[in-house]
Amino acid sequence: MARIVVLGAGLGGLGTALLLARDRHEVIVVERDPAAPPPPEDTDTAWNGWQRRGVNQFRLPHFMLPRWWQQVREELPELGAALRAAGARPVNLLEELPVSRRGPMRPGDERFATVTARRPVLEAVMSAVAEAAGVTIRRGVAVTGLTTGGRSPAPRVTGVLTAGGAAIPADLVVDCTGRRSALGAWLAATGARAPAEERSDSGFVYHCRHFRSGTGGSPVLLANLLQHYDSLSAITLPGDNDTWSVVLATASRDKALRGLREPDRWHAAVARYPLLAHWADGEAISGVDVMAGIEDRHRRLVVDGDPVATGVVEVGDSWACTNPSVGRGASMALIQGRLLRDLLRETDPADHDKLARRFDEVSTQVVEPLYRATLWNDRHRLAELAADAAGTAYRTDDPRWPISKALFAASLTDPELARGYTAVAAFIATPDEVLGAPGAVDRVVALGRDAPQYPLPGPGRDELLAAIA
Ligand SMILES: Cc1cc2nc3c(=O)[nH]c(=O)nc-3n(C[C@H](O)[C@H](O)[C@H](O)COP(=O)(O)OP(=O)(O)OC[C@H]3O[C@@H](n4cnc5c(N)ncnc54)[C@H](O)[C@@H]3O)c2cc1C
């Protein structure tokens, strides 16, 4: 069994650490933020008191998709049980839709189930479960660089350096330091070639608010979690312990909507959307939190067929991250953590060159298409928002975009397609799989082709601007 040092105790780092510890590796997680989480059942302290400067989105809305939950059930059942004990909320995304859209529940619909919680609660639970599984978490230890032992021909990473000057040796270093990972700079300092990296501003800005019910329960989901309207998208996310959150996502270039940062205007806007308005009907437990400047970024440590370094891999946001509207980050990190765990079952980390190549290969085959699919969706949605702001209709030569819009419109009246659309949103099917079902494309075209651009009830741009003026 290997000694594995995981950098970062975020969602990706903790999930990967847990998977590896269950395979009896010695796992040490090194986390820069000093504060330890409160006990998992103390959810109020996790929400109000736990300081996590290392994660910008720590108090922003998170929802764990059915794909994430499926993996937790299969691989980490103790995490599932601990989440439920801490008040995490079970949700079936299909069952929550109006029965007029989905028809009666059917066998197989349990695949739309998940359990979710606010991010601090999730992390507090994951930390406790990881420690119970034998993971050592060292908080308040910032990694500042890498130690290496020779070249073959790329530098072989043998551990990490910390701010205090101490080195932590490892058979394998797993970088889970998130969106702002400094791995590129650390590698450069070892003399390694530069990783292959692409990055750009995702172009979205999020205006988020969390709520709690004074009377128990949480609002009824009258539509899918992510809803697209003229000039903005809305996201409604159930949370743990009778909490929930609402997000208004706009294009960062759309200056006319910047007023959404102010609570009064934010509420005035939400009130205009019939499927959304009741979601603001609770005790606010946050301000309107704004997050902008979110990057899409992807980095590979194998360039021109050869690793730039061995003994180190990246998992989660450090490897790839996107605009979070579709809420796939934690699911993707767990998928990648599982790939690493599986690879270590057949490859000794001492065979470091092979491990570096194989991990890049499986990540590229399995996870990169998921990243590309999110980028594809975001690029079109951003262009559509730009067209909304310009008062024009968005046209594209890419036939998959109008088909994906038609799939949503058709899902409003066809229970089979309601399942298909929700399966894509739940991250348990791809659009190609849904549209590949016999007769699906014909029904999508027949029911969705002539649908309005935004089939859900909501204000047009002028009315929205007037509401927040
Ligand atoms: C606004 C927003 C909303 C989101 N909503 C969702 C959602 O609904 N569902 C979903 O699945 N995903 C969501 N995501 C994505 C999700 O937050 C990330 O995919 C996830 O946090 C990635 O986990 P990670 O472990 O890779 O990185 P992180 O969770 O960012 O963790 C990185 C950790 O590394 C630590 N660290 C950094 N540098 C060092 C260092 N030098 N030494 C030691 N430690 C270090 C940090 O302190 C931090 O704890 C959202 C993201 C954003 C921005």
From TrEMBL:
SUPFAM superfamilies: FAD/NAD(P)-binding domain (SSF51905). InterPro entries: FAD/NAD-bd_sf, Flavin_halogenase, Geranylgeranyl_reductase. Pfam families: Trp_halogenase. Gene3D superfamilies: 3.30.9.100, FAD/NAD(P)-binding domain. One of its GO terms (molecular function) is monooxygenase activity. This is 2-polyprenyl-6-methoxyphenol hydroxylase.
